[in-house]
Amino acid sequence: MDDIDVETGKTLNKMTPEAEATAAPGLKEASEVKETKKKAKRKAGQGFEHWTPPRAEEPIPDVQQHWGIIPRPGEPRPSEPQPSARTSNGAIVPSLWEDRKGAVRIKRGSRIINGFDQAENMYLRLMDVRPVSNKNQHPRRVAIGYYYQHGMPVDWNDTSALNDLNKALQEAIKANSNKDVPFNTTERGILADIFAKTPEISLWDAAEQFNDQAHPIVGSEEGKYPTGRFIESIKHEFSLYKVSYLDGEAPTDETEKDVPLEKAYRDWKAKQAEAKTAAKVASKKASSGKKAIKNASLASISETAGEAKKRKTKKPAVSPQATSDKTSEAAGKSKKRNYKISRSDEEMAARADATYAEIMEKEAAEKAEQAAAELQPSEQTEAPSPIVEQNSLSEEDERLSILSGQHVPRTSSPVSAQSREVFNSPSYGAKELKIGVEAGKIGNIDQLAPENAFEATEAAKAAEVAIEELVVRAEAVDESTELTSTYVQNAVRNVDLDEKYDDED
C-alpha cells in the first residue's frame, strides 16, 4: 500500500480499498496475540450485525488547504482573525475535517450511556497524513470516514466483540495519523505555558508557537517527512485537557479527560453504584427483618424448652402379610373342645335327674294303667303272638332301658321298633329320653298282647298315641323342667364322650 502513489489533497471514501485496509493491521495483531496464547481464533465479525452510520451516506468534502498541515509562523493561515480558544472551545475557522472523538473507547453495558449514544463515536472523520510512498515522503492529506466494516455489536456486554471494535477504531486513528504518538511532558509544558502567557490566544496561533518552540526546523527538509505536530494532533490534545491548558497547567496521565462520553459513563456508573447500594441496603433490611422473626421464634422455643413432652409410643405396625400368615397357621388347627362339667353343674344334673325320674315314673304309671285297662281282653291266653318276629333289643334300646330303670328282657314289638328308630337318630335329647322311658314301660305291657294280629296292631296304635301324648305333655313343662331336661341331655352327651375318650386312651 505504501508503493501506491496518491495525489496530495484528494479525498477517499471509507468504502474504498484504502479505507478498508486501515483496520487490517489491528486485526492481524489481535489474531497473532490469540495464536500466541494458544486460544481459539475468533472469526472476524463474530458478535456483530450489519450497521451503516447515517453520516457514512453523506459525501466527503474536498480537502481544504489548512487540513493536514503543520502550522508555523509566517505560513498561510485559514482565515483572519481566528477565534479565542477559551471562548470557542478550541474552534478553527473554517473548521477541520478530522474529529478523533477524543480517541475514546466504546463502553460496555449499553449503547445509550446516560443519554449519550455511543454510535456517535463509532464513525470517525480522519485525515490520512501517511507518506505517499517510500520515495515520496509528503503527507497524503486524504479525508476519510471510517467505521468498523462488520457493523454494530449485537450484545453490548460481549467484551470480545467490544474489544474487536475498540481495537479497530484505535488502529484506524493510529494508522491514518502516521502513528501520531501522545504528547510528552515537555510538549505539554510548552503548550500550557503559551496559554498561561496569552489566555485569549486562538488555537491556530497557539499551534504555530508550539511547533516553533517544540519542533524547530533545522536544515533543509527536502524529500523528508515534515517536522512538528499537525494541526489535527494539537487540536486533539487541547480537546482532551482543555481545562488544564486554559488554566495554564500542564496535564499529566492522571488528569481527568474532558470527553463527553467519559463524563456520561462516569455519571452512569455512579448511578448504577447508587442503585446497587440501595439494593444492598434493602436486602439488609429484609434480612434483618427475617432475623428478627427468627430470633422471636427461637425465643419462644427457648421458653418452652424446659417442658418435657410426653412421648407417644408407637404400636408396631403389623403388615398384612404377617396377619395373613397367622390366620393361615390357625386355619389348619382345630381347637379341642372342653366337655368337662364343673362340680356345680354335676350337682344340678343330679338334681335334675332325680326330679325328672319322679315325674316320669308317676306319668308312666298312670298311662300304663290306663292303657292296660283299655287293652284288657275278655279272654286271655298265655300263648305268645305268632305274627311278630321275636328279636332281641338293639344296643341303644338296651342302654336307654337301663337308664330309665325299666329294663326287662323282651322281644321286639312295633313300639320297640319305633323307639329304636327315635334313639338311632343323630340328635337325641331330653324328649327322646322321655319317650324311651315310656316306651320301655309300654314294652312291658306288650307281653300281655292279644293272640290275633288285629288286636296286636290296635295295641301298637294305642301305644303310639300314648307316646305322642307324652311328648306333648313334656313340651308343656315349665321353664325349670326344660332347663333340667337340657342338663340331662348334656349329662348324657358327656357320659358318651367320656366313654369315647376313655376307649381312645
Radius of gyration: 70 Å
Could you list the spans in which at least 5 consecutive residues all have pLDDT below 50? 1-6, 15-28, 378-391, 410-416, 426-450
Large-scale geometry: rod-shaped
Structural class: mainly alpha
Terminal CA distance: 133 Å
Helix content: 40-55%
Number of helices: 16
Mean pLDDT: 75
Number of strands: 6
Sheet with the most strands, sense and barrel status: 2 strands, antiparallel
**Beta-strand share of residues:** under 5%
In spatial order, strands of the major sheet run 1-6
Element pattern in H and E: HHEHEEEEEHHHHHHHHHHHHH
Q: What is the topological layout?
A:
Blueprint: H1 17-20, H2 24-36, E1 48-49, H3 85-88, E2 112-113, E3 116-117, E4 123-128, E5 142-147, E6 152-153, H4 159-176, H5 185-197, H6 203-214, H7 231-240, H8 242-246, H9 260-303, H10 320-331, H11 343-375, H12 395-404, H13 414-423, H14 430-445, H15 453-475, H16 479-504
Antiparallel strand pairs: 1-6, 2-3, 4-5
